[in-house]
Amino acid sequence: MSVIAEHLATVRHRIAAACGRCGRDPRTVELVAVSKTRPAEDVREAFRAGQRIFGENYVQELVAKAADLHEPVEWHVIGHLQSNKVRQIAGLTSLIHSVDRLSLARELSRQWGRLEKVCNLLVQVNVSGEASKSGTTAAEALALVREIARLPHLRVQGLMTMPPFFDDPEEARPYFRELRLLADRIREEAIPGVAMERLSMGMSGDFEVAVEEGATLVRVGTAIFGER
Ligand SMILES: *Cc1c(COP(=O)(O)O)cnc(C)c1O
Fold first, then answer.
1. Range of the domain at 177
2. What is the residue with the minimal CA distance to atom 6 of ligand 1?
3. For residue 181, how far is its CA from the centre of ligand 1 (angstroms)?
4. Which residues does ligand 1 sit against, CB inside 6 Å?
5. pLDDT < 70 positions in the chain
6. Which atom belonging to ligand 1 lies closest to the Cα atom of 205?
7. Cα–Cα distance measured from residue 55 to residue 193, given in angstroms and rounded to the nearest whole number
8. Which class for 23: exposed (0-12), middle (13-18), buried (19 or more C-beta within 10 A)?
9. 201 Cα: distance to centroid of ligand 1 (angstroms)
10. This prediction's pTM
11. Which residue has its alpha carbon closest to ligand 1 atom 11?
């Protein structure tokens, strides 16, 4: 077994254990293997170990890797996305986790519309309010979701967040909980075309806590591929 395959097995096991602790079905948690800075060969290795969803931060890197790989992997964009780069990834990705402004949503709508496809997205919320983090504020999230929902060729599927970094993952718990409660509040609005059924939260250091708080997508890089 390769090191990557071993790490993947460990991460999947830890997700299942976290689900066991809170009575969730492990099939409701999708693992996004964050392959940024990693060569295509590492993605192939993970694919051979059964991994299908890969997360990338940089458009250039994603486009190059996607061209290099012929395996049917699913690409997710998880990092800050510039509107002028959207055209390059139109139709290539199955989920954008990091939509934090209307101008970006407009460009996604335009570029996916050209292909007559629908772009699935999550709205990134800066729950902690840290200046260094992207994301709309919790207070503005509902309004942003409403405006995005009016655009064609888009489907808002839920929310994403990145809490501050803590040595103790327990300290991230309130931020994960806050995101879930925010999604619940937005779901109650029953906005047409808005599902709010996916929550992207949790990374290598805190994904188990995120699962306990309701994550349906965890974004794990280091624990699978090693230190960057
Ligand atoms: C890099 C990155 C991750 C993965 O981080 P690890 O600590 O390596 O698991 C998850 N989410 C986002 C948005 C990232 O940029």
1. 3-225
2. 221
3. 23
4. 34, 36, 57, 78-79, 162, 203-205, 219-223
5. none
6. 7
7. 25
8. exposed
9. 10
10. 0.97
11. 219
